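User: Please predict the structure of the protein below. I'd like the answer in C-alpha cell form so I can feed it into my own downstream comparison script.

Assistant: Understood. Taking the following sequence of 134 residues as input:
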Amino acid sequence: MSARQGRYRIGKRFRFEAAHQLSGLPEDHKCRRLHGHSYAVEFVLAGDRLSTPGFVTDFGDLDVVRRYLADHLDHRVLNDVLPVEPTSENLARFLAEWFAEHVEPHVGGRLERVRVSETESTWAEYEPVEEARP
C-alpha cells in the first residue's frame, strides 16, 4: 500500500444565545427589530500532519473558544459587543480573526473556515485567505 498525500480536517461546534438588530435594513424589515437567536458556530481546522497521538489539534485545546463565547457573546446584544454590524457574515469573520490572533498560534492545524448559523436552516461562512507573499 503506497502512502498518499492528504489533508486532515476537524470541526468543533459551539452554541450561544444572543440578540441583535440590523439597523441598515428598511424600517419594515423584521430583522431591523431587536430579536434573538440560538447561534451555532463551527470552527474548521486543517493540517497536513498529525501530532501525537494522531490529532490535527486536541479538541480540549479549543475550550478557550467556548469560554470566549460564554464570556463575551452569550446572552448579550451583539450590537453592544461587536465592532461590526452583527450579521452572521460579519460575526463569522470577526470570530475567524479573533481565533487567528488568540487561538491558532497555540494549537495544531490552521483555521480553514468559521460557519455561523442563526437557525437550523441558515448559515454564513467566512474562509480566511492567505495573502501571497512577493
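That's the full C-alpha cell string. The longest strand covers residues 8-20.
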